[in-house]
Amino acid sequence: MEKIREFFSEFVTIDDPDWNIFASKLERAAFPKKSVILEQGKKERFLSFLEKGIIRFNIPKVDYDFTFAFAFENTFFSAYDSFLTQTGSLYNIECITDCVLYRISYEDLEFVYANTSIGDRIGRKVAEDLYIKKMKRERSLLEDTAKKRYMDLLSDQPRLIKYIPQKYLASYIGIRPQSLSRIRKTI
């Protein structure tokens, strides 16, 4: 849980009483590799902080899963659109590796917002962080080549990218695994 407090300390000072309220609402959860944390069609009930592991977001198809995002250690993640609207998710969230996370339910987050002096600020920070990642991804898909998207991912997460299967990496950057093999040979 200390990593969460460190994440927030970059932009807000959390006094012990507020932290204790927030921390008391966090639930630790561990998922083995290949676990589906959230299945398409189910409502996202949690906003989660990934302490350990790698998460992928995918849209399942009959013969091909489209991977459109990853979450790495020390970041928040969620099917945020489903979380905010409390409706069914349009995609799956799955563990690529064994994962440990801390999560807070929608109801408990609302409680934190209402009962702490920093609740709204930390909620806004998490929302801003998720939005910036989404916009960066969209811009990259519109402007960058597949090789550039791969190189960016490699520079952002060099230690962790080796744990992501090539088929997921290829899907994420918008190409087939064979094309990714060609890109990797040129690097």
TrEMBL record:
Protein name: CarD family transcriptional regulator
Coiled-coil region(s): none
Domain Cyclic nucleotide-binding, residue spans: 30-113
Superkingdom of the source species: Bacteria
